[in-house]
Design a protein that fits this description.
This protein is mostly beta strands. The protein is built from 3 helices and 9 strands, in the order ββββαββββααβ.
């Protein structure tokens, strides 16, 4: 199985990082009860922290690292699309050069923190199970997926941002997995 490349904002990794790690956190409180007992209170899930390590190799390895570093310096969260993890709106919080840089080899580590926007300030249209707009509905351009297509390629073909295509298609739970015959809003 060939995995899609990892992406963040407009940076696409030339090959996926070597290792990945994801930490899930849950906030808990321990409340003291008389006679030495306690009661645990679940305060809900915290942020996910996504870490990894990788290498850039070849004659342009250091320039690839510099491109990744320039994305690190851009403010605000962005869409992190990983070949296996569920997509996340995330902040790029750490980028570490792990050895003296060479023009042909750079080893690095990264950390992303998931951003949680637990509310929206506008209404959105939800479609019934099956997830497609009713036939003849206005509002956007729809594409029927053919074998071998992916959201990244469809977004590029129709001149849309990948983040917009993902937002327009809430029925797609994993943007790296779409099926032939599925209807996708692309504009």
């Amino acid at each position: 199985m060939r995995l899609e490349p990892m992406r963040y904002k407009d940076f696409v990794w030339p090959h996926n990082p070597r290792t990945y790690r994801i930490d899930y956190e849950r906030s808990m409180a321990a409340n003291k009860v008389p006679f030495g007992r306690y009661h645990l209170q679940d305060l809900g899930p915290g942020r996910r922290v996504m870490r990894g390590e990788g290498e850039f190799t070849g004659p342009d390895a250091y320039s690839q690292f510099k491109q990744l570093a320039s994305v690190f310096y851009r403010e605000g969260p962005g869409l992190l699309v990983h070949p296996v993890w569920q997509c996340a709106n995330a902040y790029f919080v750490e980028l570490t050069l792990q050895q003296e840089p060479r023009s042909d080899y750079v080893r690095y580590a990264f950390t992303f923190w998931e951003s949680y926007g637990g509310y929206t300030d506008s209404l959105k249209t939800e479609y019934p199970a099956g997830g497609t707009a009713p036939s003849g509905s206005a509002g956007g351009v729809w594409h029927t997926v053919r074998r071998g297509e992916n959201l990244w390629g469809l977004a590029r073909r129709y001149g849309s941002a990948l983040e917009d295509v993902i937002r327009w298609n809430p029925q797609i739970k994993n943007p790296n997995l779409i099926f032939p015959g599925e209807r996708v809003r692309v504009k």
